Each structure stands twice: as C-alpha cells, then as structure tokens.
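Why do we bother with holo predictions? Because pocket geometry can differ from the apo form. Keep that in mind while you read this record for adenosine-5'-triphosphate.
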Amino acid sequence: MHSIWTEKYRPQTFSEFKGQEKIVERVKAMVEQQNIGNFLFAGPAGVGKSSMALIIAKTLFKETWKQNFLELNASDDRGIDVVRNTIKDFARLKALGNVPFKIIFLDECDSLTKEAQQALRRTMENFTSTTRFILSCNYSSKIIDPIQSRCTVFRFKPLSKEDFEGLISHISKGEGIKVDKAAIETLFEVCEGDARRMKNILQSCAAMSKNITEELIYDLVSAARPKEVKEVLEIAVKGDFIRARDKLLDVMLQHGLSGLDIIKQIQKEVWALKIPDERKVCLIDKCGEIEFRMVEGADEFVQLEALLANFILK
Ligand SMILES: Nc1ncnc2c1ncn2[C@@H]1O[C@H](COP(=O)(O)OP(=O)(O)OP(=O)(O)O)[C@@H](O)[C@H]1O
Ligand SMILES: [Mg+2]
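The structure, written out:
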C-alpha cells in the first residue's frame, strides 16, 4: 500500500522488462553463458538502465546477488577518490558463489571529469580478473574513448507507446485502478518514454481517484492541455495579438507554468497548425532562440510576447 510504485513495479526478470528488445536479447545471451565483459549503458532517464543492471546481477548470482553487486553513484559529491576506495575494497574480496567475478554498477558516469574518468579507467584495468563494470550515463559522448573502447556500449531508447500500454495495464491490474485510453495517450505524451516519470504520475493520480483521466493527469503535472496551447497559437495566427496574449497568460496562471514549460509545449504545437511548412520552420527556429534567451535569464513575458508577435508577422 505504501510502497513506491517505481520500486514495486520495477522489472525483476528479462521477461518483465519492456522494450529495448535488442539489448535484452544480447545481454540475456551473455548472462546465460556467464560471458560478460564491461558494459556501458547510455540513454535518457527512466528507460531501464539501472533496472537492467539489477536484472543482470539477480540472474547471474541468484541468492548471493547482494554480496556480489555494488551500486555506486559516480557523481557522489565526496569525490572520485571515495568511489575508487569503495571499488577497491569491494573488488579485493573474491566473488561468492560459482560466478568467477563480481559486478560494480557505476551510475551517472557522465558527471565525472575527464581526469576522474582516467582514474576510473585504471581502476577498471586493475580489477579485470575479479570484477565486471556496468557504467551508466545519459550521453555516451561525455565518456572518454579509452573507457568506451573497454566496454560494450548499449544504447537505451525511450519506451514506445506499446511498452507504456503494457506497463500501465500491469499496474492497473495490480492496483485496481482504471486508466482510460485518453489517459494512456496523455501519460505517453507527457512522459516522453520515461517509465519512472509515468509510474510516479500514475501513483499520485491514484491517490486522488481510482479512475484516472486525462484531466487528472494534466492537473497533476502542471502542463497545459495541448488543446489550450493550440488555441492560443491559432488565435495568434489569425492576427488577434491581444487576445492570444491574454489567453496565453491565462493558461500559464491556471496551470502554474513557467515560460520555459510553456515554450516546450508551444514548440510541439507549431507542427499541428494549419500554416505553410516554411512558416512552421521559421517559428520553430524562433522558439529555439526565445528558449535560449529565457535560459539566459531574459524576462519571460517579454520573450513570450515577442514569440507571439512572430506568429502574427507574415
Ligand atoms: N524497460 C522498462 N520496463 C519496465 N519498467 C521500466 C523500464 N524502464 C524503466 N522502468 C521503470 O522506471 C523506473 C526507473 O527505471 P531505471 O531506474 O531503470 O531507469 P534508468 O534508465 O536507470 O534512469 P536514470 O538514468 O534516471 O537512472 C524503474 O523503477 C522501473 O519501474
Ligand atoms: Mg539509473
């Protein structure tokens, strides 16, 4: 009742794992032959990198997985030295059970500096006989080449809508909640393939109602309904600047959105407008520029008005 759904519904076996079919297939084969090297898992948040590392450990080591698996966060603010010492202490001891090595899972490796990565590379080399490393990062481009070349790189993708449907139907059964079709669509839209985000939103919604609808989700995630944003843009395209501006302000206040929140939604809705493609391209370009200015600290409302003006200027 009180557990967090991302943990409660974390996949425990390869068969429960959704999506990433190619990765599952390859990793499963390697685990079955106990023939695994060092891995680098790259990909966006909440798509199964940590879960996959846990599944590998549980499948390989069975009951002794806890003794043979060490999870560390590379961005540990106590520094890479602490990480290295912990690794050393762990890797020095022989693996328990009949698998000849242990596994160290190092999360958020892309937050390591180049120097720290060099140090990590040496640590990896020192313990090759007793340890396998699974590194996880969002961007593999931030990992130095020598580490990449020591690892098999697996690129995780955002989950698909079908994967989401599967996960949601599993959770609905387990929790006795109802998620209608539009709500599933909305969850996918809002989470963009991030299963962690989806499970968290779903759990918060379920605390309010067993019947999960599109409205409930939008209220909770402080996002405007795409329809509302589209309306604002349509008014602007028709040339009614004042009404478009007022409506935009309305939408933002109602949902408590920041300029940056709304600009992402505007950018998505531009594609759905009934205007020539060349204009869409110009507006998308403008969205990028305005977003940059906001990130740099420019006044949000001035910038949003400037953006709306672009919808009116032909
Ligand atoms: N492929 C998947 N199949 C089923 N559930 C998933 C999958 N990917 C993620 N999840 C769910 O989302 C949660 C987060 O997943 P996980 O911790 O594996 O993400 P991650 O890729 O390591 O993300 P981060 O980069 O933020 O650490 C898990 O608890 C799990 O419930
Ligand atoms: Mg993770």
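Residues 49-50, 107, 136 surround magnesium ion (ligand 2) (CB under 6 Å).
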